[in-house]
Amino acid sequence: MQEATVKVQGMSCRSCVRAIEGALDSIGAEGRVNFEQGTVDVQHDEAKVKLADIKQAIQNKGYNVVA
């Protein structure tokens, strides 16, 4: 399993946490959101889910991923 921390702007509540964690779960990744720090800690199998896929899933939910 690979681990990565992604910086995300626009998260502010538990609903944001559920949306992002649900989006990651749907693509086969596990995410843990810390909206106070503006980060998402992600665990994923690099052979199945690329970091670009993770970022896209978060952006598809309306949040801004900071490079």
Automatic annotation (TrEMBL):
It comes from the Bacteria. SUPFAM superfamilies: HMA, heavy metal-associated domain. One of its GO terms (molecular function) is metal ion binding. Residues 2-66 form the HMA domain. This is Copper resistance protein CopZ.
